[in-house]
Specification:
single chain; alpha+beta; Arc Repressor Mutant, subunit A; Homing Intron 3 (I-Ppo) Encoded Endonuclease, Chain A; 3 domains; two-stranded antiparallel ribbon; two-stranded antiparallel sheet; 12% strand
């Protein structure tokens, strides 16, 4: 995708898959920045901006200072900063808003997460950033984890309780990729089939951006 900036120069927009492939070629295959710039139709500075932050030592050190990893190397490393209502830690990384546990696995592996992929917790603890507890998986993997742990059937998520923003985003992603029906999502999130339909049609939660 391309466009023009205020100076009239052609500007190229790369997808997350293209960025992930660029990082793979740079870090694993050893392809140099000039060759990547020519291949992807961008400048060298753009290549360094995309490939550099993932493994930048200063930036990584600043991130890990906000993670409590001193207690147990095999336990949960909890993000010490602010979290949202679902327990996740939003922050800016690589030019976009992301979550701390996703940034943790990118810093650990030195690779971007492919577009559309999720980072799953084996500990089921949203603010945990321990790479040993994290793995990259599909939306279907995430839904299977939710079902197997039955984590949506108790407490705030049960009965007529209100949904949280993160849960609505999850529902919208699920309906887009077709990994679950509205009826199945209603059971998983403790709401009615009609509530799921209203969300997907934009009758409720219309302010949430559609994926």
């Amino acid at each position: 995708m391309s466009g023009s900036d205020v100076s009239g120069k052609r500007r190229v927009y790369l997808t997350q898959n293209q960025k992930a492939e660029m990082c793979r070629l740079f870090h694993e295959a050893g392809v140099r920045a000039p060759a990547l710039a020519a291949t992807f139709g961008v400048g060298r500075r753009t290549v360094y901006e995309i490939t550099g932050p993932v493994t930048d030592g200063t930036r990584a050190a600043r991130f890990w200072r906000n993670v409590d990893s001193a207690t147990d190397p095999d336990g949960c490393w909890v993000w010490a900063g602010c979290t949202d209502s679902a327990g996740y830690a939003p922050l800016s990384f690589n030019g976009r808003t992301d979550r701390a546990h996703r940034v943790a696995i990118m810093l650990h592996t030195g690779r971007l997460i492919p577009h559309g992929m999720f980072v799953l917790h084996s500990c089921d603890n949203p603010p945990c950033c321990n790479p040993k507890h994290l793995r990259v998986g599909t939306h279907q993997d995430n839904m299977r984890d939710m079902m197997s742990r039955n984590r949506n059937a108790f407490g705030e998520r049960s009965g007529p309780s209100k949904l949280k923003t993160a849960e609505v985003e999850e529902i919208l992603r699920a309906t887009k990729v077709g990994s679950a029906t509205c009826a199945e999502l209603g059971v998983m999130f403790g709401v009615s089939h009609r509530s799921i339909l209203d969300i997907t049609c934009g009758k409720t939660w219309a302010h949430i951006p559609r994926p």
